[in-house]
Amino acid sequence: MTEARSLQAADKPVEITLPARRTPVYRSVDVLVCGGGLAGVAAAVAAARAGSDTLLVERNVVLGGNGPLAFDIGLTEGSGGISAEIFERLRASGNAAADETAGGALIYDPEALKYACLDLVREAGGHLLLATWVSDPILDDGAVRGAMVENKSGRFAVRAKVVIDATGDADLAVRAGAAVREPGETPLGINARVGGIDFDRALAGSAHWPALVAEAKRAGRLDPRQPDTIALYGITPLARERGIAFVAGPRFGGRQAWNSRDLSVSETEGRKLMRAFLAFLKTVPGFEESFLVDVAGTLALTHSRHVAGDATLADGAPGAAVPFGCLLPQGVDNLLVAGRAASFDPDFYARSGAGIDCAALGDAAGRAAAEAVRSGVTPRDLEAAAA
């Protein structure tokens, strides 16, 4: 267990002292949710439905998180509650379909998931503050009482009776002093959406793709860091009709999903490599008329750091219940951590993370936060009362 590594500002770090200043309070709420991925959306919806005045702060201008932005579009039915509602909205709207390249596993349309998340929060009566970064917690004797937020309008304080960290990387929890467990590595990758594919011709030659990529690498036309084959995915009947699918690009190991320098290097290297790979694609039968639709808006990743909680899930079958203590960071009160950054053993999560229902964790966190507000206690007090 280690304290999170920080980004070094310079080879010889220099510090400055900023003058004290008065910060306006943007809003005082019952529940503040930091992060608008599936965990954050479910938390905000659950808290708002339970009657709490709820504010969801998200750094992007859309909801849904890393999945739709990174084109990580695998879809599971969900374990119930809000998770199942999201699945059902996608299915009922025709935006969940079987992927030929994944043995018929379900995938979703990225834009449809963004809309489903937005609709759920608004219908529940939750409030949104988009294009806004959560920067620092507001601390009072070891308890989180809100957070500082920053956006184009300036720097503001948001006061809250209970705060939920759904940033995916435990950003707020770490700044509140929570200890974290860091995985050995967090592979980062980049994906793209490509149109103009003749699927019949392309897939007929798929057995030759590894050899074609290997030859291009030997000839110096592709960087050795490129994928070993053409990793095409997202092939559905509608995709065939439109000639559009997704391509998984290069992956980078040994980097940290919570380190801005690693993210910057991976993003710039990944985009450069993806551009070269898409040019190579046009030499492959079935891809001659292919064109770039868009590169994913963020890097794909499988896991990140985890808080050290009152409980830690280190083993279990896929879909196993996650103890409530996994949402409670040790040494920090009045804060819940939902999503992939909850208290999991890093090795366990690396093996089983795909089976963790982040929306279900957010759902549980939102309901607990609302109950804590209603009862006038902290979320940790709820666990103690239930013991």
TrEMBL record:
This is FAD-dependent oxidoreductase. PANTHER family: COB--COM HETERODISULFIDE REDUCTASE IRON-SULFUR SUBUNIT A, FERREDOXIN:COB-COM HETERODISULFIDE REDUCTASE SUBUNIT A. InterPro entries: FAD/NAD-bd_sf, HdrA-like. It holds the Pfam family FAD_oxidored. The keyword Iron-sulfur applies. The lineage of its organism: Bacteria, Pseudomonadati, Pseudomonadota, Alphaproteobacteria, Sphingomonadales. Keywords: 4Fe-4S, Iron, Iron-sulfur, Metal-binding, Oxidoreductase.
